[in-house]
Amino acid sequence: MRKLITYLTDFIREDFKPSLYGLTALYLAAWITLNYSVDLEDSIIDSYRGSWIRLVLFFLLDATVYFSVATFWLFSHGKQSILRTAKFWLFSLFGMIVMAWWQDFTAYQKLTALPAFVYVYSFAHYCFSNLSSAVTIWLPLWIFYRWVDRQPSYFYGFRPDGAGLKMYGLMLLIMIPLIGWASFQPSFLQTYPIYKGWGTAEALKVPGWVPALIFEACYGFDFISTELLIRGFLVIGMAQILGRGAVLPMVAVYACIHFGKPLGETIGSIFGGYILGILAYESRTIWGGIAIHLGVAWFMELGAFLQKL
Predict the structure, then answer these.
(1) How far apart are CA 15 and CA 221, in angstroms?
(2) Could you tell me the sign of the dihedral formed by the alpha carbons of 22, 23, 24, 27, in that order?
(3) What is the DSSP string of 7-76?
């Protein structure tokens, strides 16, 4: 934990400016208020599902929030000249395009609709949805990394970090009692576990644990993909251009991808995203975010499953 505290204190000491953080907080509060007042994502953006307009709207939302906060940071730290560099725009616009494509992507639904999946539709839908990030995140980032970025470092944060994993494991242990408490709440059990069986084992004539493990593996893969894009590319990848300034814009756009979720989760994503962003920036690895994200997600599934037994 001492290492974590050192990461946080060193970063905040160098980066924190009351005017910058205050302006960013007010800006995000305005966007969050707008979203939950008019149901921006669920009622407006999602009404164009299946149309190219939805992709454009996601891009405009993500890009507006990201570039606004990036501009706040650059002017606050006297580095606004970065806005005139082609590399900044190439990297950041690419990141926003990938993010919007990931949010909008629904092509996997064509696979789900095949006759082979008629008896396991819900199971297939969730699995293909989670695995689709292989196409929307992994593929474009790998191509960009190999042919444009060409950095001699590890692929956007996939650097071995055995010592760090111990720290992340300790952080996860601290969170387990909170997850246990949450598992007793009725509102929690209305959502979790995400895997609800859907008669999949009976349809496939296999033991119940087989589709459950397949589903949870697919579910976990999507969290790894999220960390690769959000903390890997937008923090570690953009740090070569923005330095510490890569963290705050990432936090802002990370909040945006939670706009379709409960308000408390969106607000929590700001604080959680900030801490994970600092960890990624200071350690140059995303294993911390992966470990915490996966651990929390799977423990929440396990806690809810045990409650419903």
Answers:
(1) 32
(2) positive
(3) HHHHHHHHH--HHHHHHHHHHHHHHHHHHHHHTIIIIIGGGGTTSHHHHHHHHHHHHHHHHHHHHHHHHH
Name the 3-class secondary structure at 202.
helix
DSSP string covering 214-262, please? HHHHHHHHHHHHHHIIIIIIIIIIHHHHHGGGGHHHHHHHHHHTTTTS-
Q: Are residues 270 and 278 in contact, defined by beta-carbon separation less than 8 angstroms?
A: no
Which ranges of 77-161 would DSSP assign to H, the alpha helix? 86-104, 108-112, 121-131, 133, 139-144
> Residue 117 burial by CB count (10 A; 0-12/13-18/19+): exposed, middle or buried?
middle
Which positions ≥6 away from 117 have C-beta within 8 Å?
A: 111, 124
Q: What is the average per-residue pLDDT within 98-123?
A: 92
Mean pLDDT of 199-217: 93
* pLDDT tens-digit series, residues 42-51: 999 999 999 9
* Cis omega (within 30 of 0) for bond into 193: yes
Query: Does residue 150 register a pLDDT over 90?
Result: no
**Contact (Cβ atoms closer than 8 angstroms) between residue 251 and residue 32:** no
63: left (phi over 0), alpha (psi -120 to 50) or beta: alpha
Place of tokens 């911390």: 288
Q: Are 230 and 96 in contact (CB under 8 A)?
A: no
Nearest CA to 137 among 229, 3, 59? 229
| 49 backbone dihedrals φ, ψ, rounded to 5° | -55, 130
C-alpha–C-alpha distance, residues 100 and 79, integer Å? 27
> How far is residue 198's CA from residue 285's CA, in Å, rounded to a whole number?
37
